[in-house]
Amino acid sequence: MNIHDFDGLYRKLQEMQHGVIEKVIRNIVEALGETLLNELIEEIGRQDLIDTGTLWNSFTRGDEENVWEWDIDRNAITLEVGSNLSYARYLNDGYTIEKTHFVPGYWNSGGSFIYAPSAKTGFMARPRTFIGRTYFDITVQHFEGGMNELIVQRLEKELGRGAA
User: Fold this and answer.
1) Residue 139: inside a domain, yes or no?
2) Do residues 107 and 149 touch, judged by C-beta distance below 8 A?
3) In a domain, 50, yes or no
4) Which residues are paired to 95 by β-bridges?
Protein backbone atom coordinates (compact mmCIF):
# COMPACT_ATOMS: atom_id res chain seq x y z
CA MET A 1 0.00 0.00 0.00
CA ASN A 2 1.20 3.49 -0.79
CA ILE A 3 0.40 6.35 1.61
CA HIS A 4 -0.64 8.39 -1.44
CA ASP A 5 -3.31 5.79 -2.31
CA PHE A 6 -5.99 7.42 -0.19
CA ASP A 7 -8.86 5.77 -2.11
CA GLY A 8 -7.44 2.34 -1.34
CA LEU A 9 -6.84 3.33 2.25
CA TYR A 10 -10.37 4.68 2.56
CA ARG A 11 -11.90 1.46 1.16
CA LYS A 12 -9.82 -0.67 3.54
CA LEU A 13 -10.78 1.45 6.53
CA GLN A 14 -14.49 1.30 5.57
CA GLU A 15 -14.25 -2.48 5.65
CA MET A 16 -13.20 -2.37 9.27
CA GLN A 17 -15.72 -2.18 12.10
CA HIS A 18 -16.62 1.13 13.68
CA GLY A 19 -14.36 1.96 16.64
CA VAL A 20 -11.47 -0.07 15.28
CA ILE A 21 -10.35 2.85 13.14
CA GLU A 22 -9.74 5.05 16.19
CA LYS A 23 -7.70 2.27 17.80
CA VAL A 24 -5.64 1.77 14.63
CA ILE A 25 -4.92 5.48 14.32
CA ARG A 26 -4.04 5.73 18.01
CA ASN A 27 -1.67 2.74 17.73
CA ILE A 28 0.07 4.29 14.73
CA VAL A 29 0.45 7.70 16.35
CA GLU A 30 1.68 6.16 19.62
CA ALA A 31 4.25 4.12 17.68
CA LEU A 32 5.44 7.34 16.02
CA GLY A 33 5.71 9.03 19.44
CA GLU A 34 7.66 6.13 20.95
CA THR A 35 9.99 6.06 17.95
CA LEU A 36 10.65 9.80 18.19
CA LEU A 37 11.42 9.52 21.91
CA ASN A 38 13.81 6.62 21.28
CA GLU A 39 15.58 8.59 18.56
CA LEU A 40 15.88 11.58 20.91
CA ILE A 41 17.57 9.40 23.50
CA GLU A 42 19.95 8.06 20.84
CA GLU A 43 20.83 11.60 19.66
CA ILE A 44 21.51 12.72 23.23
CA GLY A 45 23.86 9.75 23.57
CA ARG A 46 25.55 10.44 20.20
CA GLN A 47 26.27 14.00 21.26
CA ASP A 48 27.45 12.82 24.68
CA LEU A 49 25.36 15.52 26.34
CA ILE A 50 24.83 13.96 29.77
CA ASP A 51 26.38 11.57 32.25
CA THR A 52 23.20 10.77 34.20
CA GLY A 53 19.87 9.36 33.10
CA THR A 54 17.73 12.34 34.12
CA LEU A 55 17.46 13.84 30.63
CA TRP A 56 17.10 10.42 28.98
CA ASN A 57 14.36 9.44 31.39
CA SER A 58 12.47 12.67 30.76
CA PHE A 59 12.12 11.50 27.15
CA THR A 60 10.81 8.09 28.24
CA ARG A 61 7.05 7.65 28.20
CA GLY A 62 5.77 7.36 31.75
CA ASP A 63 8.56 9.32 33.43
CA GLU A 64 7.25 12.14 35.63
CA GLU A 65 9.10 14.73 33.50
CA ASN A 66 7.93 13.27 30.16
CA VAL A 67 5.40 15.08 27.99
CA TRP A 68 2.86 12.75 26.33
CA GLU A 69 -0.31 14.68 25.51
CA TRP A 70 -3.10 13.73 23.12
CA ASP A 71 -5.30 16.23 21.35
CA ILE A 72 -7.99 14.74 19.14
CA ASP A 73 -10.60 16.85 17.39
CA ARG A 74 -12.61 16.43 14.23
CA ASN A 75 -9.83 17.67 11.95
CA ALA A 76 -6.58 16.54 13.56
CA ILE A 77 -4.86 14.07 15.81
CA THR A 78 -1.91 15.49 17.69
CA LEU A 79 0.51 13.76 20.02
CA GLU A 80 2.88 16.15 21.76
CA VAL A 81 6.00 14.48 23.13
CA GLY A 82 8.98 15.96 24.90
CA SER A 83 10.42 16.81 28.29
CA ASN A 84 9.35 19.10 31.12
CA LEU A 85 12.94 19.52 32.30
CA SER A 86 13.86 23.19 31.93
CA TYR A 87 17.46 22.37 31.06
CA ALA A 88 16.31 20.15 28.18
CA ARG A 89 15.30 23.34 26.36
CA TYR A 90 18.46 25.20 27.40
CA LEU A 91 20.61 22.36 26.13
CA ASN A 92 18.77 22.33 22.80
CA ASP A 93 18.36 26.09 22.25
CA GLY A 94 21.37 27.46 24.09
CA TYR A 95 21.33 30.04 26.87
CA THR A 96 23.13 32.98 28.39
CA ILE A 97 24.13 33.40 32.03
CA GLU A 98 23.45 37.10 32.62
CA LYS A 99 24.99 37.51 36.07
CA THR A 100 27.30 35.63 38.40
CA HIS A 101 25.48 33.19 40.69
CA PHE A 102 26.19 30.20 42.92
CA VAL A 103 25.41 26.68 41.61
CA PRO A 104 25.16 24.13 44.45
CA GLY A 105 26.64 20.68 43.96
CA TYR A 106 29.88 18.74 44.03
CA TRP A 107 32.55 17.27 41.76
CA ASN A 108 32.65 13.47 41.51
CA SER A 109 35.84 11.42 41.24
CA GLY A 110 35.55 11.40 37.43
CA GLY A 111 35.75 15.19 37.34
CA SER A 112 32.09 15.80 36.46
CA PHE A 113 29.99 18.29 38.36
CA ILE A 114 26.87 16.88 40.02
CA TYR A 115 24.13 19.43 40.62
CA ALA A 116 22.67 19.05 44.13
CA PRO A 117 20.26 21.82 45.22
CA SER A 118 20.83 21.20 48.94
CA ALA A 119 24.66 21.04 48.75
CA LYS A 120 26.72 23.62 50.60
CA THR A 121 29.52 23.25 48.07
CA GLY A 122 29.42 24.23 44.42
CA PHE A 123 30.82 26.88 42.12
CA MET A 124 30.18 30.41 40.96
CA ALA A 125 28.80 30.55 37.41
CA ARG A 126 30.10 33.58 35.57
CA PRO A 127 28.29 35.40 32.75
CA ARG A 128 28.71 33.68 29.39
CA THR A 129 26.76 32.24 26.48
CA PHE A 130 26.30 28.56 25.62
CA ILE A 131 25.49 27.50 22.08
CA GLY A 132 22.52 25.14 21.78
CA ARG A 133 23.22 21.57 20.68
CA THR A 134 19.90 21.35 18.75
CA TYR A 135 19.55 17.64 19.57
CA PHE A 136 15.75 17.86 19.42
CA ASP A 137 15.77 19.69 16.10
CA ILE A 138 18.26 17.21 14.61
CA THR A 139 16.13 14.27 15.76
CA VAL A 140 12.90 15.73 14.37
CA GLN A 141 14.59 16.47 11.03
CA HIS A 142 15.85 12.87 10.76
CA PHE A 143 12.53 11.51 11.98
CA GLU A 144 10.51 13.44 9.41
CA GLY A 145 12.62 11.91 6.66
CA GLY A 146 11.55 8.38 7.61
CA MET A 147 8.13 9.12 9.05
CA ASN A 148 6.17 8.33 5.88
CA GLU A 149 7.78 4.89 5.66
CA LEU A 150 7.12 4.23 9.35
CA ILE A 151 3.46 5.26 8.97
CA VAL A 152 3.03 2.93 6.00
CA GLN A 153 4.66 0.02 7.87
CA ARG A 154 2.53 0.56 10.98
CA LEU A 155 -0.62 1.06 8.90
CA GLU A 156 -0.04 -2.19 7.02
CA LYS A 157 0.56 -3.97 10.32
CA GLU A 158 -2.60 -2.50 11.89
CA LEU A 159 -4.73 -3.19 8.82
CA GLY A 160 -3.42 -6.74 8.79
CA ARG A 161 -4.64 -7.13 12.38
CA GLY A 162 -8.04 -5.69 11.50
CA ALA A 163 -8.52 -8.01 8.56
CA ALA A 164 -7.64 -11.11 10.57
Assistant:
1) yes
2) no
3) yes
4) 130
